[in-house]
Design a protein that fits this description.
The protein is an alpha/beta fold. Helix content is about 40%, strand content about 15%. The protein has 3 domains: about 45 residues, no CATH class; about 220 residues, 3-Layer(aba) Sandwich (Rossmann fold), CATH 3.40.50; about 100 residues, Helicase, Ruva Protein, domain 3. Strand 1 and strand 2 form a beta hairpin. Helix 3 packs across helix 4, helix 9 packs across helix 11 and helix 13 crosses helix 15. The termini are far apart.
Amino acid sequence: MKTTDSESKVRCSFCGKEARDVQKLIAGPKVHICDECVSLCREIIEEDRHREPEKKKELKEMRPSQIKNFLDEHIVGQDRAKRALSVAVYNHYKRIRSAELEAAGAEPHEEDEGVELTKGNILLIGPTGSGKTLMAQSLAKKLDVPFTIADATSLTEAGYVGEDVENVVKNLWLAADRDVERASRGIVCIDEIDKISRRGDSPSSTRDVGGEGVQQALLKMVESSRVMITPEGSRNRPQQEFIQVDTGNILFIASGSFQGLTDIIARRIGKSQMGFGADFSKRLESSNDLLRHVRPEDVVKFGMIPEFVGRFPVIVAFDELSEDMLVEILWKPKNSLVKQYQKLFELENVKLRFNQDAMVAIVREAIKRKTGARGLRAIIEEVMLDIMYELPSLENVRECVITEESVLHREKPMLVYEKQSA
């Protein structure tokens, strides 16, 4: 059937194609739609129909024992820290579920009336490379919630050059795919929190925009408030609409090494042990023992303002990693460094093996550098550089063995070649 000129000029109201460019054009009241747009609409409807609704994790899936078991798969040691974190996170999400039930109209018990559960933010204290940030990341993975890490050293008070405190919540909103509801239940890890401490425990006489000023700016956000963030661009464009995020159900985890805190704890404990009846044989000497006795007043003495410390009621101390723990960190976790390098070599069809003496030598070098678990990768990279450079050019290599001499004297690893037929 031949279309007339007037009919051919009719266009699809959705894609703009003319009647002669499509097989069918369906007319409606002052609107037209072509067969291609109808097919596209049907595909979209089918996708939405088969898409499963997002399931929230039940409380029984987030029991403290289950959270700790998950952390055990990814992190070696730190049992006390894992237990404390597991309980704190479980209580936090139990508090959110309780608020949801009340909002849904569930009647509380008579003795529970007027009881409001407050948020328990977490402060992680421990030496560098002991797994503080990794544990926070693993928690977010287990709970399947939006997660972001902020570096406290880059934050400044509002109005000064640097990153605004509100950007911490904005990054969480971006991690939640711009979903305000999901962002309001996420986890924020503020790393290097000890770097924004003031000097001494007395108030600063001058304006400290990168230290005490940041702590004061974080106060309302960390507790429970509505934070206004700009969707795009900077704060200097007032014509933009602001997005409001409620931080009441966001779990804040602050972490820092707090170097020098053990001296403050030792002085406090030493004072309490002075006198004729003091038992000096039980004097605490190791940093692990000292950190386990940390109190909020010690953190205030270090340089954090009392109002900020008061908003982090759960203080978790991490142990300094021993040689045995570092050796286990090398090979035991699911995503250990040894397993990562073995996978890299498998892609070249070569089996990689580390001798026990080689792993001990790597660990001792990391302890000497005082970099903790974070420094293990740098040492392995130095050891593996030459062989990883040469391996793609070598043929018939079946196995590569890293020995103690490879680590200590940078000798070439042992290579095992496949037997060739005569």
